[in-house]
Write a structure and sequence with these properties.
This protein is an alpha+beta fold. The chain has one domain. The chain has helices at residues 2-41, 49-54, 68-71, 121-127, 154-158, 185-192, 201-207, 215-225; strands at 57-65, 74-82, 94-99, 111-118, 131-133, 140-142, 161-167, 170-173, 180-183. Strands 1, 2, 3, 4, 5, 6, 7, 8 and 9 form a 9-stranded mixed beta sheet that branches. Helix 5 (154-158) links the parallel strand 6 and strand 7 (161-167). The longest helix is centred in the first third of the chain and has 40 residues, at 2-41. The termini are far apart. The relative contact order is 0.19.
Length: 230
């Protein structure tokens, strides 16, 4: 009897832990969707729509924590998605975490939302490596905001990645030099099933169907960045 009770309690605890993990991924997807919506609603103060339309991949990390920069711990988890082969849609999302690096955050914010736009195929190939270091493996520049896109510098227009942050409702370019982007295997398992925990983001982008929990996020990106096709 005691063994049965213990087994029941253990099973209940396991299910509760799995539910919490699923909820955490769902909450991050919801937060990432809000970031995209609010970014594009900012108009002249947000990320220029034409740059989102031109981008090949997007990485959104909601609620990146500033304090973790000091101790070097993991501080950001989010999602990446890239254009499908014909460029008309966005792929199923991969999961990423950002770690370490010398990162310039906006003053006064304990948390920031981070958006990275990968602007060409060279940047895409580098991003899909197992470990990608911003600034070392690819050129990165703080992205222009609003109408400033028309006055973007040559460095910004040549960059493989344009980086943005939002703190307290204000969007601006952000320096992410030295930070690394890795696959978030725990989130991948929650999105696509535990049997696919070791699956690479490259495979997700090319082969997987968008899970129901991520459809609102993908639909929101598509809403603001659909490309015309012949």
């Amino acid at each position: 009897m005691k063994y049965l009770i213990f087994s029941t309690l253990l099973a209940t605890a396991t299910l509760s832990a799995q539910s919490s993990a699923r909820s955490a991924v769902a909450e991050r997807l919801e937060a990432a969707t809000i970031v995209v919506n609010e970014t594009m609603a900012e108009g002249d103060k947000g990320i220029p729509k034409d740059l989102l339309v031109k981008s090949e991949c997007a990485v959104v990390v909601p609620g990146l924590k500033k304090g973790a920069f000091i101790i070097g711990a993991r501080f950001g988890r989010g999602f990446m998605t890239c254009r499908t082969k014909d460029g008309s849609a966005w792929s199923a999302p991969g999961a990423v975490k950002i770690e370490g690096g010398s990162i310039g955050l906006q003053a006064g914010g304990a948390e920031v939302d981070v958006v990275l736009l990968i602007m060409n195929q060279a940047g895409v190939k580098k991003l899909l490596n197992n470990k990608f270091t911003i600034g070392a493996n690819a050129s990165v520049a703080g992205g222009p905001v609003g109408r400033d896109a028309n006055a973007a510098t040559d460095a910004q227009m040549r960059a493989e990645i344009l980086s943005y942050s939002r703190s307290r409702g204000i969007f601006a370019g952000i320096s992410l030099t030295g930070a690394t982007i890795r696959e978030d295997q725990d989130a991948i398992a929650e999105l696509y099933g535990s049997a696919k925990k070791k699956m690479k983001n490259r495979d997700i982008l090319e082969k997987e169907t968008t899970p129901e929990v991520a459809k609102a996020y993908i639909d929101t990106l598509t809403k603001y960045s659909a490309r015309r096709t012949n």
